[in-house]
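Memo subject: From amino acid sequence to discrete backbone structure tokens
Action wanted: Derive the backbone structure tokens from the amino acid sequence.
How to read it: Take the token row as a discrete description of the fold.
Attached in line: The record itself begins immediately under this heading.
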Amino acid sequence: MAKVKLFWDPAGFELDSLGKKRLNRITDGDTPYVSVSIRMLSIDTPEVHYPGNQDPSKHDARLKDLADWIQAGKAPVNAGLGAHLHPKLATGNAGTLQKQQGEAATTEFQKLLDQKLTKPNGKKRSVFLQAADERFDQYGRLLAYMSPSYSKKELSTMSYKDRATFNLLMIASGWAASFPIFPSLPKYRDLIMLQEAAEDAFENKKGAWSDPMALTGYEFRMCYRLWEVTRKLVKGEKLGSRERYGWVGRYCVDMTTREIYHPQDYYKVKPYNRIFIWPEDVTEAVGKLNLTPPA
């Protein structure tokens, strides 16, 4: 029986473009074909560059300093989350590991593309895209699920799992963490598949999960922001509540219990059961998903 207690079936809409933002061609006076960069929905891979184009391995010492500040009680983080993060930051190579795993995730994605987009005759197949309710992120990237585009004949012989999106395949490989964010959630049947694949990868230590000291991509970004905030506090700067605690903002829901947790308590939810919600969307999510506070 499915563990997922949430029911969500957004309409979405379908697209068939892929790539970066450049003009490819035109077919008439009002029909240009452009390519657009994509942010694959509901997944998050380790960072190869962050922030901006910076090399994560250059942040090893900074994240080690953050570990020391957490231990000394100087970082604005609650005790539970601090205990969760400290051993991963104290290794002194948290940034290097992040980059190594990011590069491994890139390699895995390319392998999946080569495998799934190559037809039996050696020709390349196109891709199928489905965007969710929120179309673009703050960087102008299309938010979408991406899968190989199969013919009707091929689809007639394939199971639903055989048609898996690259989003799901990356989670199943362990090189992407499950990262659904309300309201851009997969439909119920897909949410079940996502949860099952993520649990299997985590429990069987596939991909990035093979190293217990690994930070997910979203944790790495969060920790870097926490380092920036804590550095200011250590220097004696006075920070308002918004800046002091702005390094973490998303609430977290356990999709198997419908319980909603405060941003700093996300670690209490298993990585494969997490759904994230921005503060401005909490009221809507509580109503639509019938959420409850933790017991």
User: Anything to note?
Assistant: Residues 13-289 form a domain with the OB fold (Dihydrolipoamide Acetyltransferase, E2P) fold (CATH 2.40.50.90). Residues 13-20 have pLDDT under 50 and may be disordered.
